[in-house]
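User: quick one, fold this
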Amino acid sequence: MSGPSTAPIVAMPELSISTLGSRGSSQCLIGRAVGAIYPEAFLQNLAYRHAATRGGLRSTQGLIVRLPKHLDDPAWEVMPVPPALTLEDFLAALRLWRWHRAMNGHPTGDEAVGGASHRTAPSPTGVTDGR
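Assistant:
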């Protein structure tokens, strides 16, 4: 039997990359959600696809798959990530999240942990911890 291959080539919680097409010529990143598909899932999918691209795994489309959480939940549902959304949309949401956390005195993810920091550029929030 011939048909598209859907075997996962990368698997993470709520994330997998599957090849589509008989020769694996295109890839599609699929985020899994339960209960409902929320708008922030589209932004998260953009970030996952960006990270996968940086790791050499290009994707041509993002999909969010809602899986039933309980036996009496509606059947699964698939929504494509709107093509108008870009990584800049995710980064704008990240900047807002960091600003909100900083305004409430909470860590923003910009701080060094154990003497090392994952940040290589100044904080996009403009808020520093005084070091």
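User: anything notable?
Assistant: Residues 8-82 form one domain.
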